[in-house]
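Throughout our pipeline, every protein is held as a single compact record rather than as scattered files. The remainder of this section carries one protein's record, kept here as part of the documentation.

===
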Amino acid sequence: MSTFGSGLRVGSTYNFTFIAPSILENSYSAARVLGIVDSDTAQQTEDVIQLHTLVRVLAPDLPSSVEAMEFVKVVTSTGEVRAFAKDWLSAEPVKVTSRSVRFTVLMDLTMISEVVSFFNGRGITNVRTDIQNG
């Protein structure tokens, strides 16, 4: 079993890197943890049985069965809900504590409210809106 990911907290945001990037992707940046789940629950989100079969070709030391493994269910920074085994991590996840983005957009107050709601719905809080006349 993997020693990585033992301290994950539901609701927190992390950067994850994986073994077998040709199968699993290289990483997820700023993915929010929705839960630590069993293989049956993970299978509802992702075909983890098939993925594990493919990953084991490249990493044969992994457990042969997914039933004994713990899975992490996340929402990625692009809004996709994904699931992966802790055993597929190549390093300890890095907790994202803050990030800052600044951009200027000309829009009305209704659109500003929708943009703030969009970001808040993806776990991005403290969205600052400066309204300038001009």
Remarks:
- The beta strands are 13-17, 27-37, 71-75, 81-85, 94-95.
- The chain has a mean pLDDT of 85.
- Residues 13-95 form one domain.
